Amino acid sequence: MECANNDCQSLWIDPRPIEQELFKAYASYYTHAAAIDDNAPHPFGQLKHHAFRLATSVIKHFYGQKAERAQLKLLHLPAGQGRHLLEVGCGGGERLQLLTRHGWVVDGQDVDEKAASNARNKYGVPVHCGKLEDLSLPPSSFDALVLNHVIEHVSDPASLLRKCHTLLKPGGILAMATSNAASFGLATFGAAWMALDVPRHLQLFSMKSMEQLVSRAGFKEIRTWTSAANASRVAAGSLAILRNGRFAVDLEIGDEIRWEAMRFQQKAIARLRKDPNSGDDILIHATR
Q1: Which domain holds residue 246?
Q2: Residue range 149-169: average pLDDT?
Q3: Which of 17, 208, 228, 244 could form an S-S bond across to 279 if both were Cys, CB 3.0 to 4.6 Å?
Q4: Cβ atoms of 182 and 206 closer than 8 Å
Q5: Confidence band of 33 (pLDDT split at 50, 70, 90)
Q6: What is the SS3 assignment for the chain?
Q7: pTM metric for this prediction
Q8: Omega cis (within 30) before 199
C-alpha cells in the first residue's frame, strides 16, 4: 500500500504478516550464511570474473563510489575513540568488527539467535539476543546507536526508536540507513525492486516520513540524505527478479546482469545530482 499523502510517500504491506509468524521469513536469511569467498571459482570463469572486478573497480574509483561505500558501511560515523556503541539488528556481526577497527567499543543486538551466535563465534563481539524493548540494558549507556536497514523490518518502529532514545547518552548519536520509498530504483524496477523484500520489509519510508518518525521519538538535530552508492547491488538483484522471477545470490548473477547493473548505477548517480531525494538508501543522523 502507498500512503495517499504526497508529503509522506511511505509504503507498507497490507495485510501485514502476523508478528508471531515473521520468523519463518528469516529461516534462510543472509545473516545465517557464511561469507562469500571472492577467490572461489565462478560460473563464468576466473579470468572473466577478474576482468569484470578490475573494470568495475576503475569505474567505482572514478565516481567516488568506493569511498562512499566505505562510509556507508560505517553509516558515516566518525572514529569511536573508545566510545561505546550498540548496533541494533547486528546480524552476523560484520559491521561490529569494522566499527571496532575504527575505535568503537561495541555491543550488538539481534532477535535471531543463530545470527547472534555467528557474530559471537566469528568476531568475538558481545551480542544480546532478544527484542531491544525486552532487554535489560541500562538507560543512557551508549554514545551511539546504529540501525542499518532494520527499521523497515519491525512491527512498531516508533516504539523501537523511543527505546533507542532512552539508551543513548545525552548528546549521543543515532545513525540509521533504510531503503527509500521515493527512490529512482523503485521508480525504475517497480514491483521487481529488490529492496521491497516482501514479506520481510513491513514498511518503507521517505525522507520526510523518516524525519517525522525520528522527531516524534524525541531526537533533535536530525539530518537526512540519500545515497546511490549501492544502486548497482540493488539493481543486480532487481534485474535477476525481472528475468528469473526471484533474487539469486551474488554468485548466480551473470556478468550481463552485472554490467547492466553498473550502467544503472551511473544513471542513479546522475539522477541523484538532479534530485537529492532519489537515492536507494536514506541515511539519518540525529542526537538525543
Answers
A1: 43-73+178-279
A2: 96
A3: 228
A4: yes
A5: very low
A6: CECCCCCCCCEECCCCCCHHHHHHHHCCCHHHCCCCCCCCCCCCCHHHHHHHHHHHHHHHHHCCHHHHHHHHHCCCCCCCCCCEEEEECCCCCHHHHHHHHCCCEEEEEECCHHHHHHHHHHHCCCEEECCHHHCCCCCCCEEEEEEECCHHHCCCHHHHHHHHHHHEEEEEEEEEEEEECCCHHHHHHHHHCHHHCCCCCCEEECHHHHHHHHHHCCCEEEEEEEECCCHHHHHHHHHHHHHHCCCCCHHHCCHHHHHHHHHHHHHHHHHHHHCCCCCCEEEEEEEC
A7: 0.83
A8: yes
- Considering the chain, what is the average pLDDT of its residues? 85
25 occurs within a structural domain: no
Specify the number of domains making up the chain. Answer: 1
Average pLDDT over residues 216-226: 97
Q: Contact 112/31 with Cβ under 8 angstroms?
A: yes
Amino acid at 121: N
Residue 61 class from Cβ within 10 Å (0-12 exposed, 13-18 middle, 19+ buried)?
A: exposed
CB contact set of 260 (below 8 Å; sequence gap of 6+): 235, 239
Q: Is residue 133 part of a domain?
A: no
Can you read off the three cell numbers belonging to residue 113? 539467535
Contact 154, 160 (CB under 8 A): yes
With bands split at pLDDT 50, 70 and 90, how would you rate the model's confidence at 34? very low
* In-domain check, residue 95: no
Q: Which residues contact 219 (CB under 8 A, 6 or more apart)?
A: 161, 165, 174, 286, 287, 288
